[in-house]
Amino acid sequence: MCLIVFDWRPAATDGPLLTLAANRDEYLRRTAEPMHWWQHAPTLLAGRDLTGGGTWLGLTRDGRFAALTNYRAPHANRADAPTRGTLVSNWLMRAVGATPLEYLHEVAQSGEMYNGFNLLVGDFARRELAWYCNRSPQAPALLAEGTHGISNAVLDTPWPKLVNKRAALAGALAGNAQAPLDQLIEMMRDTRVARDDELPATGVSLERERALSAPFIEMPDYGTRGTTALRVLARDGRLSVQTTERSDDNGSHQIRRPGDYERSFAFDIAG
User: Between vectors from CA 263 to CA 211 and to CA 246, what angle results, nearest 5°?
Assistant: First the structure.
């Protein structure tokens, strides 16, 4: 994912713990499967990167969650670095035991091996959500309640698209704490670019910086490949998940832009 905005309310007893909307940006040549229950890990719901084998966002029937964005530092990237998507799938496929913060401390021990990333890791049954960036001096940390955003820099870096969509999410939830997931997806499919005086300087050309400043990126070789909306809801002492993904590929690897292939899932968190 390359833009994630989310509202985290871990103390909720009757309403959403987590409301999240996210865009996955990727090269168009890189094949992937849309969100599905994995055959070899049947409690894991996620899309799948067919090049690296990992994923960008997923969750499990027992309430674990993870999502990843790349940290934009093109001149520091190494071609031989391990794939970052397995940092998500490794958490989702591991045996229950470690907390989100413990897992991120494990990741941080070898964080320098990877190109830059942000990693969100959660356990909804524990009501814990934690964040780590291997390009930040900050150690892995549990997140306090609030509305946050991550793009291709550290948590809540005020890039225009992050600021705008974080505010849009807060506004949508102020009007309806259980805003329809389709509304959140449409909110993220915004192709407007930022003004030149608002652009960050991340080591790419001005033309590319402009194109990457849109929440929903459309470029000849690269762009937003899918949008996911997710809600975790507390009600009557139970937790449930509702999620919808709209992607550009139905699994046949015939890219359709902008993506219109949609899948929705709903389930109770086990235990």
Answer: 10
